[in-house]
Specification:
With 490 residues, this protein is an alpha+beta fold. The chain is built from 9 helices and 24 strands. A hairpin with a 2-residue loop joins strand 6 and strand 7. The chain is elongated.
Length: 490
Amino acid sequence: MTDRHPLPRPWRHTASALSLAWVLGPWLLPTGAIAPATANDFEAAGLASGLAPVEPSRIRMIAERVVLTQGAKDWQAEATYIFHNPTAEPIATAFAFPEGCPFAETNGNVTGFFVDPQFRDLTTRVRGQPVSTRLVEQRPWQGLELCIGRVHAFDIALASNERVEVRHRYRFSAGTGIGFEEVQYITRTGALWNGPIGSAEFVVSPRGAAHGMSWPEGFRFVGFEERSGGSNEPGRIAYRFAARDWTPKQDFVVALHGWPLASSLATEKGIKVPCPDAASVSSGDLAADATPDPAADELLTSLSDADLALCRNLPYARHGYPFQRPELRAAFDREAEIPGDEDGPSHKRFRLGAANPFYSDALLDDRDRAYLAAIQREQDRRAATPGVLDGLRAELKRTSGQDQVLLVQSLRIRGDWAWIHVLPESRNGRDHYEDLFALMHETDGHWRVAEIPCAEEDDPSCIGNRGFADWLKGRFPRLPAEILEAALGT
């Protein structure tokens, strides 16, 4: 497959059942609001004060698969586990399925959990058959750094050498935030099962494709899929992670970054991307016929041609365009290591995107198209810039006799009109002259100076004075509003 957006040429066109594993997860931690967590089973024994984990458990976890799907108003969790009794004796016990802790707070080692009821419409099936659950008290357990909330318990019996499937399904509320959603599934206590977990798969399905994601180093990112919806079904998005023969040492925490994506974010994660935020460039107006925002467009003027072409590919990378050129794969389809905090989890992995085997241009949304339109305007402006400068340079040479170098500070082009601000200097760079503003007009394929306004005080025909706008409109009645705004903003 040939890349359609090459560089540097401008673009054309678990819930794991765990001993002592009251495991919470996943929950969303956007900026300021935390969504309720999903949770993991653990084997529990009854005490006078409630339930306590069975440690060590004789039961093995063969496999787990956790799918978290974002709906219109909340999330749905479906967690499936395969347990094995490897002993020669039957085991009758209780599994406990806990919710997250109280509310968002920071108190010693306890950070950011809920105590309020979190599971809605919880159903539990064992061997494919529904089983009833009961709410039980839980007591504080020594050595646990994280608390838990309500606990849903159910009885289970495993015959000798039997494998049993347990499945939970429920809904939970999603938090809202700006810029990212963080899905957490606490898995560290899975180390207390009888031996490593054979295989674990985690699937995160948000409603919109992310741009940039990070996750713990102990989990392997195995793929991304996004499919456009048909007439009878919605589109689908899936980020897949896996682990095998796994003794978890940290929690499953995936941060999904959406638009806007700041270049500073990627730089912090070890991937250099020079592109401005999507929200800033598109200025929040996503209508197809929206008037371009000059201030937003000017965010792109400082980029080199190669960087501009790279940013042109950013929306395509978000949806998994399978780039073939090495420089594009290196920018968008590679992982970087994020060092862990001193008192936090170990290293993480970060990547901007991944190849999507179901990619099509139909996946691009309004934000993507607005971003692409802004970059196209900048590329069109650059294509016209040499002609504008040639016309201004020729006029200055005619009037002053000097061949000057013009350093462009800003340029606004609309149709056959342009407003330009330059810093003139001599060819040898020794002499520097005052700022120069000029109104340019294209006729017969050539840009010519229409007006170089004066800079005197109290003269309405001079730039910066109160009557300058009326004077300019009266002199050039057909002047586009965007060009007039550029002249008045200087």
